[in-house]
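REQUEST
  id: r-88c1
  op: predict_structure
  target: mannose-1-phosphate guanylyltransferase
  payload:
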Amino acid sequence: MSATDIVPVILSGGTGSRLWPLSRESNPKQFWPLITDRSMVQETANRASGPGFAPPIAVVGEGHRFLVAEQLRDAGIRDPQIILEPEGRNSAPAIATAALLVAESRPDAVLWIMAADAAIKDVPALHAALELAAAAARTGRIVTFGMQPNQPHTGFGYIEMGEALAGVAGVRAVASFQEKPDLETARRLSTDGRHVWNSGMFVATAATLLQELAQHAPAVLEASRAALAASTRDLDFVRLDAKAFRKAPSISIDYAVMEKTRHAAVVPADLGWSDVGSWDALWETSPKDAQGNALHGPVELVDSSGCLVRSEGVLTAVLGLKDVVLVVTDDAVLAMPRDRAQDVKKVVEQLRAKGSKLATEHRRMYRPWGHYEGHIRGARFQVKQIVVRPGGKLSLQKHHHRAEHWVVVSGTALVQRDGESILLSENQSVYLPLGCTHRLENPGMIPLALIEVQVGSYLGEDDIVRLEDTYGRS
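RESPONSE
  id: r-88c1
  status: 200
  body:
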């Protein structure tokens, strides 16, 4: 890493509830391939890799640590540092911990802070804007990217551009920040030539960020410093101290610093940017057919226009509809007019109020060793598919209320059962009686897939007594 390398900081703590039922807390939108065949976090990391960039820092919730690590690895991102938040405290504490981590060795390093879930079509234009922003950052500025409005959007904050910065071409001082406006105000701001959308990307040196946090948000900086000082580090993970981190005020960097600092600057840019914050926004940024339909998965349309139709596996047919959103997953269906996309949160809130796990969890659940997916459940049994990545290993465990049958459908399984080692290949099976100590491992070079049949009086995931775990889970 050279002294001029920019350090990407990827904030990956959002849940994207307006993209339910695809995006849920257990697997939010940044981990889904929404526009290309790569996930949003992979697209974000790839835009910030190669010559001129240091390995990235990702700030992520504890529960998504292995998901983000696996996706970065699959994207070819080397040597990332992953900061684990014990709980979400908004963007200011996340950015503070990243700046403190970088400042341990390079306080003059330029950080490029970005959300993991934005779409950008013109990457060369992005890199050109980044070069201008980095030059301004090295003079002590905190620079944001202002997106050129193409409509009176009420879901974005606006930045009023001030005078051009002396000696840094293409960068302007920030005159003011505007909150998300009403429609009439948005119409005025989007056409006056002085306002741009706030993209939520920031560029500044670690030293500048820490200086401004100390002045304008000292409680955020103090809690973040304490959480990092008491952190534990293993593999690529920096696990922040939970007690210290919870003392940080839950506040965005916009409120904590940007609206108060005298060093805010903006690079106006036209990047084809979208925050992909709703199904309507995804329709806008997606490729469309001749009738204006954005389609994903097995979909058939007849006499329909202006629709977004996405299926995660089930053939979905649409006849005679206009400007609608239809999303089909393996356990939920969402149908609505496209102009009601901002109201999806109301569905999620209603499901939460009823205690439904569908508000937050997918049928497929990711673990550090791979994933499992429920298929059939009865009064005293359930059937799951388990996929273990090469080298993956489940915890050594036992159950008080259920027995299990494992049938290998592809790959090779190494099973420990009460001290006995059993090697299984395709079409072979093993029985794990109630109370036995057991473990599953994939010693092969391809993913291991097996069918698990559980039988017992209680089948909850909390009926697991872990005796030993490679991944440090209790």
